Amino acid sequence: MKNVKHHIMLYAFEIIILCSGFIIILNSEFNFWTQFLILGVMLFFYTVIGLLRHTKDNDMHGKVVLEYISISAIVALLFLLVNISRI
Amino acid sequence: MFKIIHHYFFPHQRNNHRSKILHNSSLLVIIVFLLLSTWFSIIVNSVNPQILGITYSISDQELLVLVNQKRLDNGLSPLTMDEKLSGAAYGKARHMLDNNYWAHFAPDGTSPWNFIINSGYNYVYAGENLAKGFVNANDAVDAWMNSPTHRDNILSSQYKDVGFAIVEGTLQGEETVLIVELFGQKKNPFLASNTTDVETALSVSDQKEQAPVQAQVQVQEEEEEASVSANEVAEVPLLGSTDIDNLDSVNNFQSKLYQSQPLFDVISSTKTFSFVLTAILLIAFILDFVVIVKRKIPRIVGNNLDHILLLSIFIVFIFIYNLGTIL
Fold it and tell me: What is the pTM of this model?
């Protein structure tokens, strides 16, 4: 919880990015690839914010970077799978 | 079994104080599995949609019953299915698919009212609701009712007739099913036959200008393109000869049940699979977070709270995500 208090602004920014991204996808009339692009931008910011926090805490490591990219990739692939009928 | 679950979901000494399923190696296995699943689904879906396709069951009669039920619930008279309006709706749906657009007004300027006029339906008031990607009539009507402007169309006392078209095709690169719903009220024939020529002309003129305004108002709230004046709408050129030829098939349109029943429904199966996998990862991250915070074990791994946040929002998204859209 100390970590949350320490990085409250980054967490708030992350929540805003994630929520607004998914809300835009839900309410938009965009085609699938535009929605996928929005998700990609959102996941990019998610990864950057996460890594920024690790850099500030001096615990940045290669496997941390790989973990963030992996989780982002899984979410992107699941989104692709949910929309398989639109591809 | 318990040992496996414990190893994959609880951090302890043997899995280096990180749940095994959250190790980078496990995450990479999941990624490869998802890539193969996606590739396999695309291949099967395109080669044989009867095995892995989209389950649809929509009929215009069902749409009529649902729309009239909403009207009756709100103290309004039921709408009558009109063959000409259904033909116009079919023409609009085909026009959207053939010209690859998703809008009330076509890029070439063709308005919904063109289809109504060319079908022979002489309207005073008209309106249009569009839907695509819905797999049953109930979801489409619910989506319209949840949108104030579409709801206004369904619950308008000015309309007496309705026509539906359900057409499958590829729109903007996506395989989908379009639903076009056109509302209308015919010009009163009694008024025209019982007045003098001058009065008739005036009445017709007045009403003719009113009709597109009414029709325009329904769409204007949703589309900037609709911000044209009443006269401009009234003067939109009628369909070209090719389009008029197509209206022969439009007029031959018959109400039907549109149904597709593949072995596996691609929408529900992929949605369920994604939901379960996200839930498993979310549970693993929460358990890992709780155990490590309790034991105060220092590790160099990604921040669990980040991943819990992302996966929590994503699981809600999957739950409420609907492929259908309305316009």
Answer: 0.71
